[in-house]
Design a protein that fits this description.
The complex is a heterodimer.
Chain A: H1 11-24, H2 29-45, H3 52-64
Chain B: H1 16-25, E1 30-33, H2 36-46, E2 55-56, H3 59-68, E3 84-85, E4 98-103, E5 106-118, H4 121-129, H5 137-143, E6 148-156, H6 171-181, E7 186-191, H7 197-208, E8 212-219, H8 229-243, E9 249-251, E10 254-255, H9 263-276, E11 280-283, H10 298-301, E12 312-315, E13 319-322, E14 327-330, E15 341-343, H11 346-353, H12 359-362, H13 365-372
Parallel strand pairs in B: 1-4, 7-8, 7-11, 8-9, 8-10, 11-12
Antiparallel strand pairs in B: 2-6, 3-6, 4-5, 5-6, 13-14, 13-15
The chains are: A mainly alpha, B alpha/beta.
Amino acid sequence: MEKERVITIPAALYARLEAVLHRLGFATVDDTVAQLIRQHLTQVDADEVFTEEEEEEVKDRLRALGYLD
Amino acid sequence: MLKPHGGSLVNRALTGGWRAEAVRATHSLVRWQIPPDVAYDVENIGRGVMSPLEGFMRQEDFFSVVQRKRLASDVPWTIPIVLDVDREDLRGVDAGDTVALVIEDLVVGLLHVEDVYTFEPRSYAFEVFRTLDAAHPGVARVFSLKPYLVGGAVDLVDPLPHPFARYRLFPRETRLLFREKGWRTVVGFQTRNVPHLGHEYVQKTALTFVDGIFINPVVGRKKPGDFRDEVIISAYESLMTHYYLRERSVLSVLHTDMRYAGPREAIFHAILRKNFGCTHFVVGRDHAGVGNFYPPYAAQEVFEEFPDLGIVPLFFTAFFYCRRCGSVANEKTCPHPADQRLEFSGTGLRRALSRDGDSAALIRPEVAEVIARFEQPFVVEPV
């Protein structure tokens, strides 16, 4: 089983998350927080690692602006 | 490619379903109207220009930056990036809440409030600007801040439309662009002026030692007497069209306020260019200074305090045009007396722009012609 650590968040934030978690498709606040963190880390880690689609989007913009041929 | 400041590039720009969900959620949030300069800060944070900042500074980072020129994590950082509010704004807002940052109906971003704190304006101003003289535009700005600062991460939702969108690039784009151009070393050049031959000399000297140059004028709030943003961009367009190799140079604007904090701002400017992917950064005489508030080379000396900055500063002395040398020169390269020299001063440039005397020695004719098209090339009131 994966090791787990306790994360502390403000009580008000916990309550707000608890109120909306079913709309986000999660069963528990813990699952929701873990998924949100993964999502965020994916964004942060993606600084220079583009998917092919993302890279092409950026290149298209750079071409449209005249920065790339 | 050089790693971004703090290790990784922040990306807090919401896209797709996340953006749509955020917009929907804002209907039930407290909304704070923000001025355009704050909106551009939100975009700069969200798109990684200010990495590793993920939002407006929390108290711990604010005081650490003011007192130590470093974030609480010990990463170098010299300019506070803060969001100021009034007491009334804080009604119904607590740590843990999310606030929508809006301009009229445009939801620019979400602020996830982590803390609210007060500060001592005189201490903030003196530590950052080394003066309490309200004639200093940075000091005046600090003295005009609202009494509470709110720290917390921000998410970029919908950026404010930009007058120079054609030249607006962000670190993910520039890093890819530099890679595609095959540049392994890139020198960043910060400017808030129209280009004269002294600038061109510095830029091309620096470019001689690296693969490419990233010319990155700052647009945004400036002081009266500075050139207007449209003039600066038009002048650079002309210069680069006629005198620069396209495969070795990139022009892009950075929208952030000038703080005129001299040495501290030189470090700040270097950090931002590091995030864009620059390996080197030009620091000239009185970089980001104003009036006589800073010694001429203080902005170079301050780099000694930051061996861990992670970008190589290239220091340049003041330049002038020497009639005897027949070229741009400096104290280290020219043996001729002062009466042979034309200074790149404000007065000298104004004369050059009016096609008086030795104008061709100070500014390219194509650049002078572009500037002359503007009836009022200077900022009259703070913008």
